[in-house]
Design a protein that fits this description.
The complex is a heterodimer of chains A (about 110) and B (about 425). Chain A is built from two helices and six strands; from the N terminus they run E-E-E-H-E-E-E-H. Chain A has about 110 residues and is of the alpha+beta class. Chain A has one domain: 2-Layer Sandwich (Folate-binding fold), CATH 3.30.2270. Chain B is globular, with a radius of gyration of 21 Å. The interface between A and B is medium-sized, with 28 and 23 residues.
Chain lengths: ~110, ~425
């Protein structure tokens, strides 16, 4: 079973204790945006085979939303961090680079 | 190709069955093909087959990373039905179901199609209204289905407990012409027929890149060298986003794991397929006697072809209420497959930003039942460059136009 550490309460939670919330760091577009931007915001997803940034909610714990960096191939979790950010903090990026040297953040955005 | 028949079996019996030829060739790739199809699962092989059969395009290669039929084609729960709410879905799934009826004769390969009937259980008031609506829609679409009450459900499937404490059975949507087929045989039958037409099925050959110039695909780079092509079809289910990334466009797809499990084999206990969408479980009995149980999907992106145990527990716990005899069964195997989910849970059969590249994906949790229809529609798209009547609603730009084919209301997660 996938286990993810909640950055707020520090509990190493089983996936059955959490609710997955989809891709993180989406750029939000609303009224006034182009159809293409709105489509990408609603439906366009990176869906990478490898490093993925995603939202989780500690639903059966503290209830907080947070972000996790995870590998979709090995299910390895590189780290978790607070959701109030536009891009992952440096220590998360370093942790990913240490294990996936080819990975670059810019390629995602 | 030597045809399979009763006479062939008798003849081979004389020579100790040593004279059977291989069902398909395993050639090295040529330098160039008219059409390259990436993905030798059911959908890819069916696309190639109907390209040859309906359009006479036979200089075709089907490239497969692993072994043919080793992905979702060999991992699904083999259910075939076409009782969908929306017209485009009903049309393509009904086309597929009707092709399945004669596929064994068409391919000269026994796919063991068994039209044993499918019940979709209504266990909430919302499902009663939803399925009655679907039954009316199906009547207009020309798909024979019927709303049946709980007593009839019990008659069709006596092992069911219709008075469960949490989710009693309130009725069901019955499609008598639905059923199951041997999923491996569908892939093998198409592969044999494609090979017989002179098409090359190249297994153990992973696509590493797509070469294009000025919006036109020229070749694919593979682990067995560069293969040039006039047209490219991408039919790779769970890995569609990866291939689209190589080709330089994005798909509205997320890959998640869907899992299933089978019990130990038992004597015949049920002769219909039962789907229970409220509790996310579906059940049928295979010809070997195993109870085949389909579960739910993980909620997070996943490329590992394995499931997670808490989903097994959830699925079995829910099914045991409706099928109490399951509680005495040992579970034999459990596995997962990577399904490609779109925003509206309907498939994509579409042109792409690259003029001669076409994509067939997004079948999500319901791809097996669609294989012949999907191949039929995709072959027309690849051959003509424009979608035919079956495929035209399934374009990938429907998400921009807001013209969804919203089936998740009707089908829930078990699909």
């Amino acid at each position: 079973m996938l286990t993810v550490t909640c950055p707020y309460c520090g509990i190493n939670a089983d996936e059955s204790e959490l609710s997955p919330g989809g891709e993180a760091h989406l750029k939000r577009f609303g009224p006034g945006s182009t159809d293409a931007d709105f489509e990408q915001y609603l439906f366009g997803r990176q869906n990478p085979r490898g490093v993925h940034f995603e939202r989780w909610r500690h639903a059966y714990g503290c209830g907080k939303w947070f972000h996790a960096a995870r590998c979709t191939v090995t299910l390895e979790v590189f780290g978790t961090y607070a959701a109030q950010t536009y891009e992952p903090p440096q220590d998360i990026k370093d942790a990913i680079t240490a294990k996936r040297p080819d990975w670059v953040w810019e390629a995602l955005s | 190709m030597k045809r399979y028949s009763a006479f062939a079996i008798a003849k081979q019996a004389m020579s100790h069955h040593l004279g059977w030829e291989r069902a398909w060739r395993s050639p090295e790739p040529k330098k160039k093909y008219d059409v390259v199809i990436v993905g030798a699962g059911g959908h890819g092989l069916a696309t190639a087959y109907y390209l040859g059969k309906n359009f006479g395009i036979k200089n075709v290669a089907i490239i497969e990373k692993g072994w043919l039929g080793g992905g979702n084609t060999g991992r699904n729960t083999t259910i075939i039905r076409s009782n969908y709410l929306q017209d485009p879905s009903a049309a393509i799934y009904e086309k597929a179901r009707s092709l399945y009826e004669t596929l064994s004769q068409d391919l000269n390969y026994n796919i063991m199609f068994s039209p044993r009937g499918v019940i979709m259980l209504a266990q909430t008031q919302a499902e009663i209204r939803g399925y009655q609506r679907t039954a009316h829609a199906n009547a207009l679409q020309g798909v024979p289905t019927e709303w049946i009450g709980p007593r009839r459900v019990k008659e069709l499937c006596p092992i069911m407990n219709i008075d469960g404490p949490r989710y009693p059975v309130l009725g069901g949507l019955w499609q008598a012409r639905g059923g199951t087929a041997r999923h491996d045989a569908v892939a093998w039958g198409y592969a044999r027929a494609c090979s017989d037409m002179g098409m090359d099925i190249i297994q153990q050959c992973e696509v590493k890149g797509v070469r294009s110039e000025g919006g036109t695909v020229r070749a694919v780079e593979t682990t067995k060298g560069v293969i040039e092509c006039d047209k490219l079809g991408i039919v790779v289910a769970g890995h569609s986003s990866v291939l689209a990334d190589m080709a330089g466009f994005k798909l509205p797809i997320e890959s998640v794991a869907l899992q299933a499990l089978v019990s130990e084999p038992i004597k015949p206990a049920m002769d219909v397929v039962v789907m229970a969408n409220t509790v996310h479980g579906y059940l049928s009995q295979s010809d070997k006697g195993e109870m085949v149980i389909g579960g739910g999907t993980d909620g997070y992106n996943n490329y590992t072809q394995r499931g997670s145990f808490h989903h097994v527990e959830e699925t079995v716990r829910a099914l045991v209420e409706t099928f109490p005899m399951l509680s005495r069964l040992k579970m034999l195997r459990q596995w997962g497959g990577i399904v490609d989910m779109t925003g509206d849970r309907s498939a994509i059969i579409s042109k792409t930003p690259l003029g001669n590249c076409f994509v067939n994906c997004g079948w999500g949790t319901g791809g097996f039942k669609a294989i012949p229809g999907s191949g039929w529609a995709m072959a027309e798209l690849v051959a003509k460059g424009e979608p035919g009547p079956l495929a035209e609603a399934f374009t990938m730009d429907r998400f921009r136009r807001g013209q969804f084919i919203d089936e998740s209301v009707a089908a829930g997660v078990a699909h």
